[in-house]
Structures are given as structure tokens and as C-alpha cells.
Design brief:
By secondary structure, the chain is mainly alpha-helical. 70% of the residues lie in helices and 3% in strands. It holds the Pfam family DUF2232. This is DUF2232 domain-containing protein.
């Protein structure tokens, strides 16, 4: 800041939203770039890549978040060959983080989790449709997922029977959607907690355990399930993948229910650890139980919150 005739003079670069957004975008791009080059701890840094974006957005607003996403994308574009790293970062973190903040941060200010929870199902569904469209000329979505699974198993030095590969292919889209959704939620919660402890948060932290989906949302994965059952042989993977990825918000709601119910028990932490271990070992049955819990909490209670 300079002075002119004794009066303060402010410029564009004195705007904290610009500074916070630029810093957040550069740090996020650096974390992703570290992972893309396969450097030590790269995977951990990749999962933390959206944290600087949420720090900028939850501390300085939508404009700062938008600046962070643009700066991060431009930074990756300038230092990485090709568009794939930039598109990956934007599709996995940049755009969904911007959508989550834009839909969740309300006037007041307050944070409403209804639309962000919906977007955690709709955004991966959109990416799944896009992947199916782009892979259409080379055997469709199933061929693309199967190739990715086989490459991953080869790099790990593992050989799996064809039946196991088929199971992984069927669940791969949903697993990716779940892990990305959890990463976004964890980074957003971490950023909110960090800012709130220092009195820098724009809005109070929401009660994510009380978040509810709109009443119409479960119809979307149900319609995809019907399309899967009616699809002919060889064309059923796309509607199945859409059904699974759009069920992720219901699963997250079930996780919230589980945390709420176990909060009353003194042995809460060991029970949660046991449940998460069982979820990892028995992924599909555990996921179905969580989805059922989420549906029961929203539609089984006498006075559920009204999210129309």
C-alpha cells in the first residue's frame, strides 16, 4: 500500500481475495504436480491438493476460490506437457471444489450442505458419462476401466483372476467417486476448522451429521438401477456405474448417521475403527448397509428435515 498526498492508495494487488486465491491455487497446483511426478509422499499430497483451495474459499469467499482454481490450472498448464494433468486436477478437485463452495456458501453468511451433497453424486456421474463418450470409439467404458484396472494390477505385481477383475471394473467408478468425495469433504472440514480456530472463517461450521438430501434425489440412482436391469448384454456397465456413483451421497449420509448414533457410546472410537475396517474388507455389503441407513434416517423418521 502506498500513499498519495497523505491518503492511502490501494491497488489490485492489495486485495486479500486476490492474494489468498493466487496463493491457494499455486500451492494446490504444486501438491498435484509433486504427485504427478511420482515423488515421495506424492499420493498423500495429491489427496491434500484441494486443501489450499478450500482455505482460500472458506476464508475469503467465492471470488478467492475462483481465482485459486484459475491460477492452479494456469500453473499446471505452464509446467506440465499436455492437457491431461490439468484436466485431471480440474475434474477431480478444481471444478468440484468451486461448485461445492458456490452452492454451499449462503448469505448470512452460513453454509448449507444440501446442494453440495447432491453435487458429490451428480459431478462423478457427469464425469462417468463423459468418460463413456470419449471411450466409445475404443470399446466403451468397460474397455477403458478394464484396461486401467489391469495396468494398476500389473504395476502392483499382482495377478487377479478374471472374475476378480470383473468385480473391480464394476465397482471402480463408485470407489473413485467415494474416495474423491471423502477427500473433498475431509479437506473442506480441515480448512473450515483451521480458519474457525483462528477467527478467519466466513461462516460457522455446519453440522454435517444433520445434512439431508432433497427428497427427489434417491430417484436418480433408482432410475439408473432400472436402466441397468433393462440394459442388454454388453451395455449394462454404464447405467450400473451411474447408479453406484449417484449412490455415494446416500452412503455419505449413512456415514453421518453412524457417527451420530455411535456418539452416545463410550467405546465410540473402537467401534468406528471396526466399522471402517469392515467397510474396507466387505466393501459392497458395507456400502449397501450405509445407503440403507441414510435412507432410513431421511425417510423413516417421523419428522425429518424438510429439504425440498
Amino acid at each position: 500500500m502506498g500513499t498519495l498526498g497523505g491518503n492511502p492508495r490501494t491497488g489490485l494487488f492489495d486485495d486479500p481475495r486476490l492474494l489468498a486465491g493466487a496463493a491457494g491455487g499455486l500451492v494446490s497446483a504444486f501438491a498435484a504436480l509433486w504427485a504427478f511426478h511420482g515423488l515421495p509422499l506424492g499420493m498423500g499430497l495429491f489427496w491434500l491438493s484441494p486443501l489450499p483451495l478450500f482455505l482460500a474459499g472458506l476464508g475469503f469467499g467465492r471470488a478467492a476460490m475462483g481465482i485459486a482454481v484459475v491460477v492452479g490450472a494456469l500453473g499446471l498448464l505452464l509446467v506440465t506437457p499436455g492437457l491431461l494433468p490439468v484436466l485431471l486436477w480440474l475434474g477431480v478437485y478444481g471444478v468440484p471444489a468451486l461448485l461445492l463452495l458456490g452452492s454451499g456458501l449462503q448469505a448470512g453468511p452460513r453454509i448449507d450442505l444440501t446442494l453440495p451433497l447432491v453435487l458429490l453424486g451428480l459431478w462423478p456421474a457427469l464425469l462417468t458419462l463423459l468418460a463413456a463418450l470419449l471411450a466409445g470409439a475404443e470399446g466403451g467404458l468397460e474397455a477403458a476401466l478394464r484396461n486401467a484396472v489391469q495396468i494398476g494390477l500389473t504395476r502392483m505385481g499382482a495377478e487377479a483372476p478374471e472374475a476378480v477383475v470383473d468385480q473391480i471394473v464394476r465397482l471402480k467408478a463408485a470407489a473413485l467417486a467415494l474416495w474423491i468425495g471423502l477427500a473433498l469433504l475431509a479437506n473442506a472440514a480441515g480448512a473450515q476448522g483451521f480458519l474457525q480456530r483462528r477467527g478467519l472463517a466466513l461462516a460457522p461450521a455446519p453440522n454435517w451429521r444433520a445434512a439431508r438430501l432433497p427428497r427427489w434425489y434417491p430417484a436418480l440412482p433408482a432410475l439408473a438401477a432400472v436402466a441397468w436391469m433393462l440394459a442388454g448384454s454388453g451395455a449394462e456397465l454404464l447405467p450400473l456405474s451411474l447408479c453406484l456413483v449417484m449412490s455415494v451421497p446416500l452412503l455419505l449420509q449413512g456415514l453421518a448417521v453412524m457417527h451420530t448414533r455411535l456418539a452416545r457410546f463410550s467405546a465410540r472410537l473402537p467401534l468406528l475403527i471396526l466399522f471402517y475396517v469392515l467397510l474396507l474388507v466387505f466393501s459392497l455389503p458395507g456400502a449397501l448397509i450405509l445407503v440403507a441407513l441414510g435412507l432410513l434416517e431421511q425417510y423413516g423418521r417421523r419428522n425429518p428435515p424438510a429439504n425440498m
